[in-house]
Amino acid sequence: MIDARETRIVLDIDRCISCHACDVACYESHSNKCNLTRAKFDIIADLPLHCKHCTEPSCVEACPAEALLRREDGLVYHNSFRCIGCLSCTYACPFGVLKAVRVRHIVSKCDLCFDRLDEGREPRCVETCTSGALSYIPITDEDERERDRVDGRIKAKPWRR
Amino acid sequence: MSLAEEYRTKCPFCSMQDDLILRRGNPNSALFGKDNLFGLYVDERNDRGLCPRGNFTTELLTSPYRLRNVMVNGKPYGMDDAIKECSSILKEISKGKNEVAILMGGNHSLEEAYLAREFCNQLNTELIGIFPFEDEALLSVKNDFSFDEISSSDLVFTIGDIFSHSPTMAKPIINARNKKRGNRLLYLDIVGGRVSPFASNYIVRPGYTAYFLSILLDFIKGKKKNIVLEKTGIGLSSPSIKEIETALKESNNGWIIFSNIYGHFANSLTIVGLLGEIARRTDNHFAVVPVAQNSLGVGRVIGKFGNEDIMNRLMNKKLKGMMSFGGLLPELLTGFNNYVDNLSFVLSTTILKYEDFPGYLFPTTLSIEKEGSIVSLEEEVVSLGDAVPPVPGAVSDGVLISNLMMEISGKEIKAPVGGLMPVDGKSRGLHYAPQAFEDEEFPFTLVGIGLPYHHSNGEISRRMAWNIEKGGPYLFLNPSQKKKLGLGRTVTVVTPYSSCEFEIGSPSESPYNIPEGVLALPTHYPETRELFPIGVDNDGMLSPGAVKARLEQ
Fold first, then answer.
1. Domain A7-153 architecture
2. Phi-psi region for residue B148, left (φ > 0), alpha (ψ -120 to 50) or beta?
């Protein structure tokens, strides 16, 4: 079992070709619901945006229905049965990664494919990435710098802000 | 039907032939519900990932749109009765020579291609062709393809947006570019594509790619050094040709890679010939990437490129029957319905449902639902792996052809076990003439660009996650030109062949940088195919390529 507190999905934006394979993989493995958000920069780039699974997640603080919870292993988990679709979390998230599911009137977010993590496998989007842009790596000092670089260079388009 | 826990097979879509593992879905899992018959896993050996099309494998496998019974003129029919009727008609019409034509798909196994060839002998016909027409050109050259060598090369020159057409090629090509300082990636195409952000871009006017390459070849040969590119109307400046020539000549282990899709390059046959010659003269490798999974294998086992002959006979009423295996004739041949009255027998096999088919329509299987062997890009015979049980009612094209042959002759013919060695491709001539496109009546050029997904009747195109909100065809055009023309949300595109209403895609959704005067189709639907001409193989080029068009509000 992988501890979400010690690992992170990292995007190398110098490798992403915007092929959307991660979107489709997420869609296929989450009962036809894509949990990834896209960061779009006109015609220059269209990058997948993953939940950072923050240590002190503001989306969890903002949720009035306790639909968002931070598990002991660090995973910020969304319970769709509790979600009332108020979209408070989408306003609270500083990275703009939460998004509304229009048909079901709830919110969706990346769950790191937790059942695959329990099996010791990587999240589905990382496994399927065609260009090697996505990786699921342990947070070491060196990787922390890498993460800062990646996060520093991506500015998410906040949802309805 | 009992299912095994795991199937190791090959991705059924493109010629990358990525390894897949299908596992039975875990009903207790939060992610795989009871409706998910299979979970999809990328093989651990396969570090090339899996593209959006590959990720749709499980959905297509269990799709409610799968055809599960025989249809005759749009009405359900029994399989045995249909085979008996078809065989008696075929027996009757095949008494003369070359009365029946067969078109084979590129996603068949070598064994099925062998059976189709035998079927032709039985039907007394030599008319057999491969219907991914854009792949026909690629069968005529020797393919040097090698994943390992491409990822260690110092120069990759891609013609066509390979990151869109075959996304799993992205990793070896980006690895090659990043390996050492000074390594280069060059990109030649008619629109800026997914390769663009990583490469030095050379965008030529649509229809003029072959002409540009012929000038490049002359430069490499040492002729026409004083040509002024700006005066040719190609759209590139003079230094660009020198840059490409120098890069090709200075590379030690360079690769020229050609990737084409339906409706993208005009003169693709010519382009392949010219690139082969350029690679030979500059001492680089040349690799071609077909669209379909096993075009190389099927094309070389059937050993014929009969598309031109078949089309001419169809249009001149010299055919009595036509069969296509692995695809629908009305969708493969745009405008087919105008000629269907010339035929007394029509048969197609298809994966997805199709209404109002004018003849016998049999349900067929995906390549993951059958065993057999295929040819890899490295030209090696490889196994398809485990066969997932086919959906009830569907039979593979190999089984259907065997049954028809058995019914006609009473003899059972089997393909040799263990794979067939393909024969070499046939050499083809070169045609240099650039294709004239836009004129006063049709000032735009319409081209197809990278297909995230398209299949059969377009139902799946409409169900793609990013196409659901669109609902129908959409296109991209140059944003400043759109502003200049004052276009709204929708526009009608008129070509000499048909017209179709489109929604205009927002520039922020497009990874493509579209030059002025170009209309680009990112996804094909059945109605968009009508915009292109029926004529294939005219003037030595594999049309349809780009087509001239005008906009109407």
1. 2-Layer Sandwich (3.30)
2. alpha
Cβ contact A132–B49 (<8 Å): yes
Residues of A in contact with B175 (CB under 8 A): 132
Q: Domain span at residue B266?
A: 138-289
Same domain (yes/no): B151, B257:
yes
Q: Could you give the CA distance from residue B444 to residue B514 in angstroms, rounded to a whole number?
A: 12
B439-457 pLDDT tens trace: 788 899 888 887 655 555 6
The two three-digit tokens of residue A8, written as one number: 């992170």
Examine the domain organization and report whether B473 and B516 are in the same domain. yes
Q: pLDDT tens digits, residue range B322-338?
A: 999 998 888 777 678 88
CB atoms within 10 A of CB A161: 9
Region label for B420, one of left (φ > 0), alpha (ψ between -120 and 50) or beta (otherwise) = beta
Contact list, B179 vs chain A (CB under 8 Å): none
Q: How confident is the model at residue A103 (pLDDT cuts 50, 70, 90)?
A: low
B333/B247 same-domain check: no
CA distances to B51, B87, B183, B371, B551 from B452, rounded to whole Å, are 9, 39, 29, 27, 25
Residue of A nearest to B514 (CA): A43
Q: What is the CATH number of the domain that holds B403?
A: 3.40.50.740
Q: For residue B293, which amino acid is it? A: Q
Query: How many angstroms separate the CA atoms of B26 and B507, rounded?
Result: 41
- Token couple for B122: 């039985």
How large is the ipTM? Answer: 0.83
| Partner residue facing A131 (CB), from B52, B171, B510 | B171
